[in-house]
Amino acid sequence: MSTPTITPYRSAQRPGRDDFPHLLRAEWTKFRSVRGWWIAMIAAALLTALAVVAIASAANGKQNPGAHPTVAIGPGGEAVTDSFDFARQPMTGNGSITARVTSLADGELPGQGAGSSTRTAQPWAKAGIMIKASTTAGSAYAAVMVTPGHGVRMQWNFTHDLAGLPGTPSASSPRWLRLTRSGGTVTGYDSTDGTHWTQIGTAALAGLPSTAQAGLFAASPQYVLGAQGFANNNNQPFYDTRVTAHADHVSLVGARAGAAWTVGHIGFGTGPAQPANVNGVPPVTRHCGPNGHHCKGVASPPGFKFTAAGGRFTLSASGGDIAPYVADLDPLGTVLKGSAVGLLAVIALGALFITAEYRRGLIRTTFAASPRRGRVLAAKAIVIGSVTFVAGLVGTAIAMLIAERKLHSGGWVSSAYPIWSLTSAHGLQIVVGTAGLLAVAAILALSAGAVLRRGAGAITAVVGLLIVPVILGVILPQTAAVWVLRLTPAAAFGLQEGTPRYPQVMHACLPYNGCFPIAPWNGFAVACVWALAALGLAAYVLRRRDA
Amino acid sequence: MTAIHAEWTKLRTVPSPGLLLLTMIVVTVGFSILEDVVQKCPTSCSYDTPKLSLTGILAGQALVAVLAALMITSEYGSGMIRITLTAVPRRLTALAAKAIVLTGLVLAAGVFAAAWSLIAGRYILPGNGFTGAHGSELLSLSAGPTLRAAAGSVLYLALIGLFSLGLATAVRDSGASIALLIGLIYLVPLIVQLGVLDPRWERHLEQWSPMNAGMAIQATRDLRSLPIGPWPGLGVLALWAAGALLLGGLVLRLRDA
Fold first, then answer.
1. What is the per-residue pLDDT across B37-76, written as a single tens digit (0 to 9) for each?
2. Distance of alpha carbon A245 from its chain centroid, rounded?
3. Three-state SS for A325?
4. Which of A230, A485, B37, B148 is the most exposed place for a label (fewest CB within 10 A)?
5. In this structure, are strands A238-239 and A72-73 parallel, antiparallel, or unpaired?
6. Is A197:A178 a contact under the CB 8 Å cutoff?
7. Looking at the complex, does the CB of residue A444 fall below 8 Å from at least one CB of chain B?
8. What's the CA gap between B73 and A517, in Å, rounded?
9. CA nearest B181 in A: which residue?
10. Cα(B41)–Cα(B136) distance, rounded to whole angstroms?
């Protein structure tokens, strides 16, 4: 009798390999095969789009004076503030204008109730030389100027700004400024002595007519204090300033010999539409003799002084600016806050992706199959991060496409609140940034889930870190709000800002109005640092604790 | 009565409810103090000081919502709910017992949170210029509106708790219900505050959203300019809570546990 040999069962399947791609695939299978999860993910994308579009439909700009501000339209089609005092002469063909600025002073316009002390100068008050296509507000220009806070600048066509020599001019250390026109390009120079010139930049001005206006200008925008209080407050948000500059050695090449200076105000006040008829206040001009004598008074623009005596010029102006118009409100950014609906769903999914395993005991199988726990966490983070990113991309793109048109048809003028195409830099920032924010939120929630092992705790923690700060930013007074929005991962919401900001415009960045205190991608970096730190903590805890 | 005792025992014998309530008090008082410290009144100002010193309720309510949601969803998560319903087969009685215990606890913790916030405001605010000369009275519960704001804030927390309990009973999953509650409580105020909505819409939302309407109870100045009065506002929140409890009760009654 022979004893039968028993062959132990062997699966026909090849044994699974313990490498990272397989781990990724395992985690992807876990996500994909739970129907509730991918339905929730698709719902998150659709709900984001739906919420954003719904808020956009309710955001009616027709009743809101900030929606259709009084603005000039710049050469690029954007809304601009173009309001300044200009002493000018026609310049035909190529030519140049040179001036030496020997002093610049700026300060609060007296009588505004600040008490006895005079408040700070507007760092972007400006006085200098300019070549401008015409006296129409919004027409092309190039200018070299001195400023109290940012040295010599060359600016053109409102959005361009280059730095020249630093410091403010004085009698012992003057600033020589020069603009030369050659065809359609204008080149700016500065110098400390009038013999050694440094080129600052070159501006190509499309449509500069053969006879342009060249001369001296000054503008002193309001100083924006920016005050956000609680409930209500009576802080004055801004005050008027006055700039005064002295210039000499003014020479104009290309102007008619002995031509007179025409002195006057260009443009009109910009800002939210006022009930009074601000729009279309005609430019006030007066005509003077060659050296500032024999001024035959037409109405003088308020506050502007221009004297030219013995080759010495004094420019003094209050108000106005030559810069892009930056709106206080941010309708697109606000409307995109609707993505918080999707964000909440994503946070819940990210946390459940690991806490569900703890609840069902699946985590022990997972770690038995792949004992290196850090790699499991990495694979989970990659899977949930990528799925969320793709869903966020689709949801935000749909939301943007519809919401911008809804806002536009709802009375928000497209010059001040531009419609971004999905391929423009700013459109990409919003769509990719929002998707990235969702992905980071999912990874934060995953890490919190790994540390806390409870869905409720993890979700509360991430909501507390990511969404509550945005609400506090609106409610808290400014000092506290700004710090909350700098330090928490909520800083990444700055990526959703719908209007670009320009460094050369003093703007009250109020969290109350949806403005974030740090640059968008820096804010995103803050959120990424949080997510990485949370992942690190989760990996440490996973390794040290029993599953 | 025994059902209430059972619910109380369930809450008392695990650490998380006590911790959550303690955190709620700390967060509420902490945010109130932060607000008191950073808020300045250099010359004269028309701040609503009782409201200002009770700011922390805005943050503390989230923890009340979490506690209330966990009271029921943790039972669904662990299967405990089947034991609860075996012991108390009248399901609405079981839910009512939970609601009563929750209300009692939140009221007790809320009194501490509101009282300490007001005391902090009373001592900190005058140092920041909120003095009688600048148009701000010293905070005192003997002033009717201040008492109403403080007591109303405590009631507000309790109503948020009941609202959360009802909704969580309907949803059953802890993660989903907390996400939903946070959304319902915080998203509307966030959108309204940024000031781009149609004014009519804005007003309606402020009148009918649980948080905007309920928080009207804290206002003590310019009551005429509010979208909704203090007590009607709290009434709106009470309607939300009643509706949520009704929904939760229906789901509990009609669906298998």
1. 877 776 666 677 888 888 888 888 989 999 999 889 888 8
2. 31
3. coil
4. B37
5. unpaired
6. yes
7. no
8. 39
9. A344
10. 9
